[in-house]
Amino acid sequence: MAKIIDIIKRNKQFSFSFEVTPDISEEEIDNLRVDPSFFSITWHAKTHQNKDLDIAPLKIAKFLRSKEKEVLLHLSCDFMKRNFLFRVLLLLQEINIRNLFIILGEGFDPETSDFKDSSELIKCIRDHSGPYFCIGVAGLPDCNDDKLIALKRKINLGADFVLTQAFFEANIYKTFVHRCKKIDINVPIIPGIFYFETYTQLSGFINMCQIKVSDNILEYVKNDQSNKITGGDIIKQLIRDINDEKIYHVHFFTMNKLRVISDFVNKLY
Questions:
Q1: Which domains does the chain have, with CATH numbers?
Q2: Using the 8-state DSSP alphabet, how is residue 54 labeled?
Q3: Cβ(97)–Cβ(71) under 8 Å?
Q4: Residue range 141-167: average pLDDT?
Q5: What is the mean pLDDT of the chain?
Q6: How far is CA 12 from CA 85, 247, 249, 264, in A?
Q7: Is 105 left (phi over 0), alpha (psi -120 to 50) or beta?
Q8: Distance CA 232, CA 151 (A)
Q9: How many Cβ atoms sit within 10 Å of the Cβ of residue 233?
Q10: Is residue 38 a contact partner of residue 72, using CB atoms and an 8 Å limit?
C-alpha cells in the first residue's frame, strides 16, 4: 500500500490513473490491458445513504485491494456522520487503503451531515487518524480568488494533494498551478483529464459536471469532421503540452469506459 503523493513523486516518465464509479464490473477491471498507478472510486451518498459498510464503493474498493491495486476512495460530506466515518476509516486501515479524496458532495444538505464542509471533514480525519491517510481535494482550474483561498485552507488542515477538474487547454492548468504557488500551495497538483472522441461526448460531460470550456474549443470540436482532428487528438496534444511542465502523471475521468481509455493510453507510450 502506498500514498498517492509517493506514487506520483517517484514517477520519472508518463503514468496515469483511472476514476471509476462503484458500478464498474469486476470483469471490466480484470480485462484491463493497462495498469493504472491507482484507481479512484467515486462516492454517491444519496444512493446508499451511508447506512452500513455493505455499500458499492467499499465493495469495489475491497475487490481492487484483493487484486493488489492501489485505491483512492472518495468520501463526501453528504450523509456523513462521525460514527459512520470512523467505521469506514477503520475498515480502510484493515484492507490497507491509505488514500482519500474529500469532497462536499453533489446537492449537499448540512441537515444530514455532521460536517458542514470538506474542511471540517479533513480536520476530523486528521484528528482521528493522524498522518495515516493521504488526503486529496478537488481543484477548479478557473476558480475565483475566494475558492483558491478555501483550497489553501484545506491544504493547511492536512490535504496532501490537489486533483483538478477536467480542462481542455494547457494554459488553464499552468495558470492554476502558478496561482497556487503564489499563495504557497506547494502540494502536487494532479491534472484531471476527460478523454472524448465526439462533440456529443464533450457536451454531455460539460453539462453533467458544469465546467467551462472555451468557445474556441467547442467550435473546433464541433467542426472536427472538416478539420479531421478528433477529440482524441486534442487530448493527446493537451497531455503533451502539460508534460512540457514536467508533469508526468495524469488522472482520467473514465466514465467506466475502460477499454476506450486503455486503447488511448496504449497509443501514448
A1: 4-268 (3.20.20.220)
A2: -
A3: yes
A4: 97
A5: 92
A6: 36, 9, 9, 20
A7: left
A8: 31
A9: 13
A10: yes
SS3 assignment, position 168: coil
C-alpha cell at 250: 495524469
For residue 226, what is the enclosing H or E element? Answer: helix 224-227
Question: How would you write 71-138 as a 3-class SS string?
Answer: EEEEEECCCCCHHHHHHHHHHHHHCCCCEEEEECCCCCCHHHCCCCCHHHHHHHHHHHHCCCCEEEEE
Q: What is the pLDDT of residue 238?
A: 93
| Burial per residue of 198-210, b for 16 or more beta-carbon CB atoms within 10 angstroms, e otherwise | ebebbeebbeeee
217 within 8 A of 168, measured Cβ to Cβ:
yes
Instruction: Name the strands in the sheet holding 134-139, side by side, starting at the edge strand that comes first in the sequence.
Output: 189-190, 161-164, 134-139, 99-103, 71-76, 39-41, 15-20, 249-253, 192-193
pLDDT in tens, 223-261: 655 556 678 888 999 999 998 767 789 999 999 999 999
Amino acid code (one letter) for 208? M
Give residue 109's Cα distance to chain centre: 22
Write down the residue that cell numbers 444512493 correspond to.
47
pLDDT digits (tens, 9 = 90+) for 187-197: 999 999 999 88
Tell me what percent of the residues of the chain surpass a pLDDT of 90.
76
Helix (H) or strand (E) holding 161, with range, is strand 161-164
What are 162's three cell numbers? 490537489
3-state secondary structure at position 211: coil
